[in-house]
């Protein structure tokens, strides 16, 4: 077991052009996917609930496609499908971007995460209490202030439980990164397994690492829910 841990640590510290360990690469994929997906999902969620079909329909189509197809297929499309197109080779920036496995992996993860987050936030926006909106209108708020001061803060707080589950699922989805040669936890684990032939111990150690990160995420989201959803808790008399 000690030799396995030593081998695992050596493979953890091996780099493939990124200079990160397997755990760091996994966390990097998760953080970038979540942050960019979150930032893109907010305006898309507003567009998704718009009464203007020319605005809401394209967003609906985007979320439908990315939630209706496997992430692995999306990853392969970004990694090999797009790069096979002729105009990508002819454009220097596109050729450089899609030649990099990390870029392709992040693109697929961000687009997938954004699609799910958009629907989560859009559902929370739709369920905003009519009284809250009417109060903002009574104060003479513009549509922009109504969204930034009432609707979005309320919707984002109420979507925390659902969004926390999506973040955990995104962590699990990062295991697909090894198929594009990105050295995440699973890629390192497979290398250790190939070197030691101790499959149970190698994958068991990887499972412990993933579970540790998940418990950390659950703890962080529970803290946020306790603070930001306190007003929904039953009040004692």
From TrEMBL:
Cellular localisation: Cell inner membrane; Cell membrane
Record's protein name: Histidine/lysine/arginine/ornithine transport system permease protein HisM
GO biological process, one term: amino acid transport
Organism: Paraburkholderia steynii
CDD domains in UniProt: TM_PBP2
Subunit structure: The HisPMQJ complex is composed of two ATP-binding proteins (HisP), two transmembrane proteins (HisM and HisQ) and a solute-binding protein (HisJ). The HisPMQ-ArgT complex is composed of two ATP-binding proteins (HisP), two transmembrane proteins (HisM and HisQ) and a solute-binding protein (ArgT).
Residues in ABC transmembrane type-1 domain copies: 23-218
Family that this chain belongs to: Belongs to the binding-protein-dependent transport system permease family. HisMQ subfamily.
Keywords: Cell inner membrane, Cell membrane, Membrane, Transmembrane, Transmembrane helix, Transport
Segments crossing the lipid bilayer: 20-47, 198-221
One Pfam family from the record: BPD_transp_1
Taxonomic lineage: Bacteria, Pseudomonadati, Pseudomonadota, Betaproteobacteria, Burkholderiales
């Amino acid at each position: 077991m000690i030799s396995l841990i030593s081998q695992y640590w050596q493979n953890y510290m091996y780099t493939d052009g990124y200079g990160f360990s397997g755990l760091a690469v996994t966390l990097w994929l998760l953080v970038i996917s979540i942050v960019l997906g979150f930032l893109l999902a907010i305006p898309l969620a507003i567009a998704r609930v718009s009464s203007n079909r020319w605005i809401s329909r394209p967003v609906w189509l985007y979320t439908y496609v990315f939630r209706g197809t496997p992430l692995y297929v999306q990853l392969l499309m970004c990694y090999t499908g797009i790069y096979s197109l002729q105009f990508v080779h002819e454009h220097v920036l596109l050729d450089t971007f899609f030649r990099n496995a990390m870029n392709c992996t992040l693109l697929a993860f961000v687009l997938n995460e954004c699609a799910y987050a958009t629907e989560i936030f859009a559902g929370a926006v739709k369920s905003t209490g009519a009284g809250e909106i009417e109060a903002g209108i009574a104060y003479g708020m513009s549509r922009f202030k109504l969204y930034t001061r009432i609707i979005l803060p309320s919707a984002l707080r109420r979507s925390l439980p659902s969004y926390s589950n999506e973040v955990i699922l995104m962590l699990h989805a990062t295991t697909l990164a090894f198929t594009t040669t990105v050295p995440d936890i699973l890629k390192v684990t497979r290398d250790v397994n190939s070197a030691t032939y101790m499959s149970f111990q190698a994958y068991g150690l990887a499972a412990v690492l993933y579970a540790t990160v998940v418990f950390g995420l659950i703890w962080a989201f529970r803290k946020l829910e306790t603070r930001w959803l306190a007003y929904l808790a039953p009040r004692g008399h």
